[in-house]
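The records we work with from here on pair a chain with its fold. These numbers are not coordinates but entries in a learned vocabulary of local backbone shapes. To see the layout at work, look at the sequence and tokens printed below:
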Amino acid sequence: MTEKILALIEEILKVPEGTITIDTEACDIEEWDSLAHVMIIGELEDKLGISIPLDEAVEITSVRELLEKAGIQ
């Protein structure tokens, strides 16, 4: 599931495969702005059935946090 989430984030951000890792911070990726953040959270629910409450979603600053909130790690 982790690989699917990483691939989904890369697809949304339109970055090369392998750019996003578990250790990626949102601030390290220029394409990861507030709109992209909302799109990532929405696509996780739509495509993978992973729901993250809005109050928790807005606090996410890294892939590791995203995975934790999604219950993956």
Observations:
- Helices lie at 2-13, 34-48, 54-57, 63-69.
- The mean pLDDT is 96.
- The two ends are 10 Å apart (CA to CA).
